[in-house]
Amino acid sequence: MKPCLIFLMCFLLLSFGCSKYKNDKCKDGIKVTLIRARLDGCGWLLRLANGEYLEPINIMDFNITLIQGRSVRVSYLERMDILSICMVGKTVEIKCIE
Q1: Residues 63-75, buried b or exposed e (16+ Cβ, 10 A)?
Q2: From CA 63, how far away is CA 45, in angstroms rounded?
Q3: Distances from the Cα of 70 to the Cαs of 26, 53, 65, in angstroms?
Q4: What does pLDDT average to in each consecutive run of 10 residues of the chain (98 residues)?
Q5: φ and ψ of 51, to 5 deg
Q6: CA-CA distance, 39 to 68, in Å (whole number)?
Q7: Between the CA atoms of 56, 61, 62 and 63, what dihedral angle is there, to the nearest 10 degrees?
Q8: What pLDDT is recorded for position 17?
Q9: What is the pLDDT of residue 18?
Q10: Is the Cβ–Cβ distance between 82 and 54 less than 8 Å?
Q11: What pairing do the DSSP bridges indicate for beta strands 53-56 and 44-47?
């Protein structure tokens, strides 16, 4: 194999295959509002359009600026195996956020 072809293949693999979380567009995501919880032990919450809250366990894993009241789009997986500290909404693992 030619060195250029090997380099190109390695570059493509590293560029597209090594991300723990894909921060691509959340095509199937829903619109939420970022809320900074004011309760001890709580961090950020996601407020749905219907007023309900989600408690994300991994929001800090994403490269996103967290601003009170900011609207974002997320897709998530509800986690029923993890207990909540805030106890104001469903505990979720974010799959993508934009």
Answers
A1: ebeeeeeeebebe
A2: 16
A3: 16, 15, 9
A4: 54 48 70 91 93 95 95 96 89 95
A5: 95, -10
A6: 15
A7: 140
A8: 47
A9: 46
A10: no
A11: antiparallel
What does each C-alpha distance from 90 to 15, 29, 46, 55 come to in angstroms?
34, 16, 10, 6
Distance from C-alpha of 68 to C-alpha of 14, rounded to nearest angstrom = 34
Residue written as token pair 């974002």? 72
Task: Name residue, tokens 């996601």.
Answer: 46
User: What DSSP line would sit under 48-63, residue for residue?
Assistant: -TTS-EEEES-GGGS-
For the entire predicted model, the pTM comes to: 0.72
Residue-by-residue DSSP string for 62-78 = S-----TT-EEEEEEEE
- Looking at residue 30, its amino acid is I
